[in-house]
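ARCHIVE CARD
Drawer: 12
Card no.: 0347
Subject: one protein chain, sequence and derived structure
Cross-reference: see card 0346
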Amino acid sequence: MYTVIGTVGSRTLRVLWMLEELGLEYEHVRAAPRSEDVVAFNPAGKVPVLVVDGTPITDSTAIITYLSDAHGRFTHKPGTLERARQDSVTQFLLDEFDANLWTAARHSFILPEELRLSGIKNSLRWEFERSQHTLIHRMSEGEFVTGDDLTVPDIILTHCLDWALMAKFPIVEHRLSEYHARMRSRPAYKRAVARRDG
């Protein structure tokens, strides 16, 4: 049994969604960042945390990569060109999508007010839009980012697109909007999101 620590309105959603896609049993501890439940496993106070046999794993990408590797699903085999492409797209999404959204969040409500720079969000939105154009050229012709099967970067991208809409970062590529709607219609995604109200 896995234990997931973190709130659904965070990157914890990525972990819950992966577990739902895998059809695995898990306990979900709805703990906020920097709370005692989180700090007990991650001194940085960040969520999500996955506890496996008493050992904590932190960072949503590390967690969902571990889960997909451990269960042999939603990933390509390590050491293959397909896995290299998958990992390359994952890193692109973290650098160009997740990082911009996280920086915007930090300057909106995370950093002390005197350290926030409201004007930075204009340049971050510009970068986010430019990155969408680049991603479209890197996406496969299949239903998912890297082909005909759901993989780790699909979970990251969908979560980032969710986050973008909440942060008022426009999705300017029609193909990404269609992709986003398709991913959000997956039963496992819906089950993970429903935990927000649980």
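Annotation on reverse: Helices lie at 12-22, 36-39, 60-71, 81-110, 120-138, 152-166, 174-184, 187-194. Residues 125 and 168 are 9 Å apart (CA to CA).
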